[in-house]
Amino acid sequence: MITLYAATSNPGKLRDFAAAAQEESDVAILPLSNLEALAPPAEDEPTFEGNARVKAVYYSRSLPGEIVVADDSGLEVDSLGGEPGVRSARYAADAGFAGDPEASTDERNNLYLLARLGGVPASRRKARYRCVLAAARDGACLITAEGSVEGEILVAPRGNEGFGYDPLFYLPEPGKTMAEIDLATKHRLSHRGRALRALLLTMSRQE
User: pLDDT by residue (tens digit) across 137-194?
Assistant: First the structure.
């Protein structure tokens, strides 16, 4: 049995990791219990891999001898030159886009994305979710793995099950948005699920 500790307080990511653990019989994925007591590291690397490495290495020092995993992930929209990319979680804030003052961060990011894509036809709304996972132990990065999934951005949100840009991210295979599918299907299709499977495969080959 491999036990991995997920360095995230994002409830959506923790749900994704929990679903992943159910699919992998020899893996347990637990939240890093002391995360809230630690000042977060700066996430100022220009790539998903760079940020994932920084977080995994930093948080692994708080749990000696154990493997800590951290991800950096986001949305890349082709017609926007890859935006929002590594700034996905801060997209609206970076632009000074207030939107509805009662809206959550996710809702403001979605509203800003829709504003940026105003008038762009469906044929030019191709996008992908990308995730890089890094595993570290005792302050040293062991491995990284990447996963991505192709889709397109809708003109209005659909579904209530996801987080981030999930209500706008349409998956051609099931014909639903990422916010309309169940967790098991999401693990099978999503960028995070694919990155985790790639990470576990690499780890098994190294044993």
Answer: 999 999 999 999 999 999 999 999 889 999 999 999 899 999 999 888 888 888 988 9
What distance in Å separates the CA atoms of residue 35 and residue 4, rounded to the nearest whole number? Answer: 14
Catalytic residue among 71, 72, 106, 166: 72
Neighbours of 164 (CB within 10 A): 22
pTM > 0.85: yes or no: yes
Options 3.60.20.10, 3.40.50.1010, 3.90.950.10, 3.10.450.50; CATH for 2-206 is 3.90.950.10
- Map tokens 């994305």 to a residue: 113
**Helix, strand or coil, per DSSP, at residue 94:** helix
Tokens, residue 156: 């209005």
Question: H or E stretch including 21?
Answer: helix 11-23
Q: Is 94 a catalytic residue?
A: no
